Fold this protein.
Amino acid sequence: MAKRQKTNNPRPGRLRIVAGKWRSRLLDITDVPGLRPTSERIRETLFNWLEPRINGARCLDLFAGTGALGLEALSRGARRVIFVEKSARAVGTLNANIATLGAAGAVVRHMDALDYLRGEQDERFDLVFLDPPFAADMINALCRLLAERELLAEDACVYIEQGRSRADPGLPAGWEVLKNKTAGNVRYMLVRQSR
């Protein structure tokens, strides 16, 4: 019996948009070490939470990876999403998926998330998606930069995704947790900068 040869699978996975104008559309996922798209189940819960806020929202998807969160937001009526991702391979696939969808309002920045936050920004965001690598202990620093750099619009929400075993993030003064759930090894929450 001949051994089965290993093949390089050019399509390591597919991402399905859960709802909105691109509902059920399947998009490519790049094979990048550590890339972990937010699951459909978590995205469905998150966007149920965000339903009253998503239409016309200006969003920032840091550590965009596959773009699952930002593309879901655009599908559901967000006006604009800036995707920040440092992996060239992930950026290439993200740009291809945006082109496939004809996603007006999508802007991709090929750069490090911290460098983006520290740079000169003239835009304020209604929603920010923070889904850094689970091994990186960055949530506190990211939230602090969002507050210090005044990147959040009034009544803005920040989505945080981290490993289940991590302690609650140290949020800036005046921020409150609106929702907090776990699914498998993931803890995810929606927080808001209080008025």
Observations:
- The longest strand covers residues 152-163.
- The helical segments are 40-54, 68-75, 88-101, 113-118, 139-148.
- DSSP finds five helices and nine strands in the chain.
- The beta strands are 13-16, 26-29, 58-62, 80-85, 106-110, 125-130, 152-163, 175-183, 186-193.
